[in-house]
Write a structure and sequence with these properties.
Elements: H1 2-12, H2 21-25, H3 36-56, E1 96-103, H4 116-120, H5 128-131, E2 152-155, E3 160-163, H6 167-170, E4 176-183, H7 189-198, H8 208-216, E5 226-231, E6 255-256, H9 275-296, H10 299-322, H11 329-335, H12 344-356, E7 361-367, H13 383-404, E8 411-416, E9 420-425, E10 436-439, E11 443-448, E12 456-458, E13 460-461, E14 468-470, E15 473-474, H14 475-485, E16 495-497, E17 500-502
Length: 517
């Protein structure tokens, strides 16, 4: 009778059979009144751990640390982990990040990496030595070189080449660091998106925004520290794992907000329920959850308490944040944003509003950049031109707006895809439309603000844009550099899980100090 009652209580509270990160890495004693499933899970792990500990000695017990600063709290206490800011490892250059991800990956040869040789060889067979032993997502046989149909010109004091497709970006090049030598280990969308944002090519690892929030906390307890906004009509190919918390406690995951209508569904109080009644309900729920935590020691119970409290505070803070009614007509025109329509432009403006209210990490995904050339809907003549027209003005406006408000100095803005595109025409199944296949060996990104050099071009590819010949930057290097600008040492920002310390950069990565102002 007691056993069944306890199991039912655990099931109703949502705690039955849940294994938290710290339980897996640092097992606590089995609760006295544990359910059968909890007992068996804990007992099995504890017996194995005891045997291993006897072999490794008294120092073998792992501990969970925050930002490399020591163990987490014990099972008998609750911690407000989304609360006050945590000190960085060293003085930061940036306090927050806005990441603009062009999902599908723009073709660098048509936007930033000017290659006259491609136009000279346009339509001719690709050199055999270039593609020997190469794997492509869709290209078969010996493809033809594809020149860019767009004009390039030098802009700004830096003389950076920018395509005619990006006239607004061309005007801000002296605020940008353009990196033409990024490379990745992945050449398909989902693994490459995961690799870029989580440091691994499979689901289950924390996103960069989750790591940053875990390491630094939040500047505004009334809003999520990590917010995600989508445009283009789809989620990323890798799904929501690219803003997940992985094995970190779940309050660090990104909060996906809608840019039109209610930003967060079901956040309002039910009809007839006032704020005082809701407060009493939350207080009672928190009391029950704390009792469950004292018995089971599952950090996900702490996460649930924190998330309930944040949701309560968001009911008051979110509507005003997402209401563009206070923006001037000049600002709306700068971004090209229609307050009544969901768009990348609206999301860029919302990103500025979020960071000026203390949101730590804002992730924008814009879809439709996968220009294979199988139809006008994915070619470099029609679709690429459409995507550039949708995103060029608002991305440049974001930099200008942050700058004039004094926010660019300590806000890091990053623009990228997940990999590059080939200098050859894909011509899938004999398609007559022009497009480029996936390419992991080289792609271009830009970065601005937050300690980056201004008006700076870094890295170089060969005359066809196929391989990097100067100053390569790996994806893990990009991640390490971003964390460094935020005052975090990528080798010290760790979390112990399944017996080892994990970090965003896995076992690699270096800070590219040449990019820093």
């Amino acid at each position: 009778m007691t056993r069944d009652h306890d199991e039912l209580s655990a099931r109703e509270s949502g705690d039955l059979g849940r294994a938290s990160p710290s339980e897996r890495s640092a097992p606590d004693p089995i609760p006295v009144r544990a359910s059968r499933r909890t007992f068996l899970a804990s007992a099995g792990f504890s017996l194995g751990s005891a045997a291993l500990a006897s072999l490794l000695g008294p120092d073998a017990r792992p501990e969970v640390g925050i930002a490399g600063r020591g163990p987490a709290s014990g099972a008998g206490a609750t911690v407000d982990r989304t609360g006050p800011q945590r000190p960085p490892h060293f003085p930061p250059r940036a306090k927050r990040v806005i990441y603009l991800h062009m999902a599908g990956s723009p073709p660098q040869q048509d936007l930033f990496d000017y290659k006259p040789k491609l136009n000279e060889l346009d339509g001719k067979p690709c050199p055999e030595e270039l593609i020997a032993k190469e794997r492509f997502a869709f290209i078969k046989g010996r493809p033809n070189i594809l020149g860019s149909p767009y004009a390039f010109a030098r802009h700004g004091a830096s003389g950076a080449y920018v395509s005619s497709l990006l006239p607004h970006t061309a005007r801000i090049v002296d605020d940008l660091t353009i990196v033409r030598s990024l490379h990745t280990d992945q050449f398909n969308h989902a693994p490459a998106e995961l690799f870029l944002h989580t440091g691994g090519n499979r689901p289950g690892r924390p996103a960069a925004g989750a790591w940053v929030t875990y390491g630094l906390g939040t500047e505004n307890r009334d809003l999520p520290a990590f917010v995600v906004l989508n445009s283009g009509g789809k989620n990323p190919s890798a799904g929501k794992s690219v803003w997940g918390s992985g094995f970190l406690p779940s309050e660090y995951q990104g909060c996906q907000c809608r840019s039109q209508g209610d930003p967060v569904l079901f956040a309002g109080d039910p009809p007839g329920v006032g704020r005082e009644a809701r407060r009493r309900t939350l207080d009672l729920t928190a009391e029950l959850n704390r009792a469950a935590f004292a018995k089971q020691g599952d950090p996900e119970i702490e996460a649930r308490i924190a998330q309930y409290e944040l949701a309560f505070r968001m009911q008051a803070s979110v509507p005003g944040t997402f209401d563009l009614g206070s923006e001037t007509p000049e600002t709306l025109a700068l971004y090209g944003a229609d307050p009544a329509r969901s768009s990348f432009a609206r999301n860029c403006l919302l990103a500025r509003r979020l960071v000026e209210r203390g949101v730590r990490f804002v992730q924008l995904f814009d879809h439709g950049w996968d220009v294979h050339g199988t139809s006008p809907g994915d070619d470099i003549i029609t679709q690429l031109k459409t995507k550039c027209a949708e995103t060029d003005r608002p991305a440049a406006a974001l930099i200008l707006d942050l700058k004039r408000r004094g926010l660019l100095e300590d806000t890091l803005v990053v623009w990228s895809g997940e990999f590059g595109r080939t200098p050859m025409n894909e011509a899938r199944d004999g398609s007559k439309y022009l497009g480029r296949d996936h390419h992991p060996h080289a792609f271009t990104i830009w970065m601005a603000g937050g300690g980056m050099k201004r008006g700076f071009v870094y890295g170089e590819t060969d005359e066809l844009g196929y391989r990097i010949v100067k100053q390569p930057v790996h994806v893990h290097d990009l991640q390490a550099t971003m964390l460094h600008l935020l005052g975090l040492d990528h080798e010290r920002l760790t979390y112990r899980f399944q017996g080892r310390d994990f970090r965003l950069t896995d076992v690699a990565g270096r800070v590219v100090k040449d990019l820093l102002a």
